[in-house]
Specification:
Elements lengths: L1 H40 L4 H10 L3 H12 L4 H12 L1 H10 L7 H9 L3 H13 L4 H25 L10 H16 L3 H18 L6 H28 L1
């Protein structure tokens, strides 16, 4: 009976992880396919595409890297640009860290590898709701990771038969981020933070060369959101 209960619990954990991960996988299939097509058009072979998806595993950075490769950018500029774009993972990891206290370095290393914008959004909501186990969150990361790798390789294989820009490929990445933003708008403070971050990104993009404005706008928006939340808490306290 003990083994049966353990099996049922493990099966339930796996099922919940699959339920949480399938929307991410559904979005990764066309996006990964699109990346594979673009990478193939940029001259990358299947091995290159697979290794980039495994070692980098960051959709936006991979799209940017392929675009820069197509424009024959210098290797150092590609590395620095993708590093700056991926710097937002520091903020995402900081938000998830409060739910992973006491975990060993090995688990945290494997977990950190699978953190993306999508898995971060899903796991953060689940952790806040309560009852979400760290291994369920890890399973969401790895299921999504596997889907991304497979879809990019499939896109690379069939890229020779698909014209670049077909099926809304150019808009797919932007649409995904808009959906993620919508899921995070849980109140007026979050809406104001999103507006401030967006306005800052637009303004900074006009004066800051490259993609550095993304990190700068993220830090500014996060700071503004924290200040707004503290102000709201103090205001509620004054009326108590």
């Amino acid at each position: 009976m003990k083994e049966m209960r353990l099996f049922v619990n493990q099966f339930g954990f796996a099922l919940e992880s699959l339920k949480a991960a399938w929307p991410i996988c559904l979005g990764y299939l066309p996006l990964g396919f699109a990346f594979g097509v673009l990478a193939q058009k940029a001259g990358l072979d299947l091995l290159d595409i697979g290794l980039m998806s495994i070692l980098v595993y960051a959709g936006s950075s991979q799209f940017i890297a392929v675009a820069m490769l197509s424009s024959t950018a210098a290797p150092l500029s590609i590395i620095l640009t993708t590093f700056v774009v991926n710097f937002r993972h520091l903020l995402m990891s900081s938000s998830l860290a409060v739910h992973l206290h006491g975990e060993g370095r090995r688990f945290l290393s494997v977990f950190a590898y699978g953190v993306t914008d999508e898995s971060f959004a899903v796991n953060l909501v689940k952790f806040r709701a309560g009852g979400w186990h760290r291994y369920q969150a890890l399973a969401v990361n790895q299921i999504s990771n596997f889907t991304w790798i497979v879809s990019t390789i499939l896109g690379g294989y069939t890229g020779q038969f698909i014209l670049a820009g077909s099926y809304g490929i150019d808009y797919a990445l932007s649409a995904m981020f808009l959906c993620l933003l919508t899921f995070q708008l849980r109140g007026r403070i979050y809406l104001l933070t999103a507006i401030i971050s967006g306005a800052a990104a637009i303004g900074l993009s006009l004066v800051v060369p490259g993609n550095g404005f993304v990190v700068m706008a993220s830090l500014f928006g996060a700071t503004a959101g924290f200040a707004l939340k503290r102000y709201a808490q103090r205001k509620r306290g004054s009326y108590a």
